Amino acid sequence: MRYDWTPLWRSTIGFDRLFDVLDEAQRTAEDSYPPYNIERLDENRFEIAVALAGFTPDEVVLSAEQNVLTLEGRKNEKAGKTFLHRGISARNFKRQFTLADHVEVKGARFNNGLLVVDLQREIPEAMKPRRIAIQGAGAPSSQIEARAA
C-alpha cells in the first residue's frame, strides 16, 4: 500500500525534500530489483555494488543530478531466442539513490557482474568545524580608546 504525502505538502514549508525521501523509501521497499549493497569504506568513502548479471556497460546509464544518483538499465533482447528456463532476470529497471549533501560520485566500473560506484564525501573548508581560541581574564583585550572632544 502506498501512502499519498500530498496533503502534508500543503501544510509544510521547507520540508518538501523530507517527503520526497519518504516517498522514495516507500518505492524502494516495493521493488528490490536489481539487488545492491552499500558499503562504508571509511569515514568519507562509500561504495555501491549493484548486481547486473547479463547486462553490458552500454545497456546501463548512470547519472547524478543534485543529490540523486540514478541507475537505469535497458536490456537489448535479441529476437529468436527460445528459453527452456529463464532464471536470470534481465528486465529493464530504474533505481535511484538519494545522496547526502557533499557526496560526490568519483567513478564507476563493472567487475564480475557487479556495477561498482565509488562515492566520496567532500565537505568544503568553510563548513568544517574549526577551533576558536578563548581568551582568559588575564589576556589583553583589544579596546578602542576614545578621546573626549
UniProtKB/TrEMBL annotation:
Domain SHSP residue range list: 27-137
Alphabetically ordered keywords of this record: Stress response
Protein's name in the database: Hsp20 family protein
Superkingdom to which the source organism belongs: Bacteria
PROSITE patterns: SHSP (PS01031)
Pfam family, one: HSP20
Organism: Bradyrhizobium jicamae
Family note: Belongs to the small heat shock protein (HSP20) family.
